């Protein structure tokens, strides 16, 4: 398993409800970033990112403390209802490029809507315009 930073775009962002219980004191850095080629849809209290050409999702690139990495990734997998290969997953954890404010591109883990969830959202989901769950723009 690669020790990539993690791109967060919903309840794990600073100031959101899952940031403190999962990330506070367990990161080296948290910097703004953009996930290109993705869009956001509303979920029940949290967003889903789906791959889509031309879209951009705003969020933060989280670099966990080295000693916390394995445990933190397991905790985030549980939070996001992700288990490798499980067809019931709500999300899939995949490596994607994230663009930082200075234009640097960094590969990071990101939780994208699992295929069955993505298919349902594309048919009857509500798109979050602008790609920012907090509607502040990026």
UniProtKB/TrEMBL annotation:
* This protein's record includes keyword Endoplasmic reticulum: no
**What CDD domains does the record tag this protein with?**
GGCT_like
What's the protein called, per UniProt? Answer: Gamma-glutamylcyclotransferase family protein
Instruction: Give GO terms: molecular function aspect only.
Output: acyltransferase activity
Which EC number applies?
Answer: 2.3.2.-
Q: Does the keyword Acyltransferase apply?
A: yes
Q: Which residues form the Gamma-glutamylcyclotransferase AIG2-like domain?
A: 6-134
EC main class here is transferase
Q: Which Pfam families match?
A: GGACT
The protein's UniProt keywords, in alphabetical order, are: Acyltransferase, Transferase
Domain of life from the UniProt record = Bacteria
